[in-house]
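User: Hello, beginner here. Can you help me understand these amino acid letters and fold codes? It all follows right here:
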Amino acid sequence: MKAVVFDKIGSPLDVLRLAPVPIPEIADNEVLVKMISASINPRLSVHSESVPGTEETSFPGAEQIAGNAGAGVIAKAGKKVLLKPGTLVAFYYYNAWAEYAAIRTFAVADVFRLFCSDFYC
């Protein structure tokens, strides 16, 4: 799959790039979300321009996938997850700027259950 990644500190225009990365594996308490949309958040520059409390200029040995909020459809659910594949979800978590994201269930909201009730939907 493709994702927007960075591996060093700097301006988003200078450090973000599109790169191939593996589709993430999920744990028992995670869902694999096929992304539909992901927000562009001004706080991204905080994450790509600094490592809090340090003078670091790179992330040793690891690319970071950018983005921290999005929406999509569950492609796969872990063994301890009640949500089913095909469920439309929104989340605030990390690694959102990718074709797929592994998201822990505490950060996922079922869009229809969140916004609909028996009366309205």
Q: What stands out?
A: The first strand starts at residue 2 and ends at 6. The beta strands are 2-6, 17-20, 30-38, 64-65, 69-77, 88-92, 100-104, 108-110.
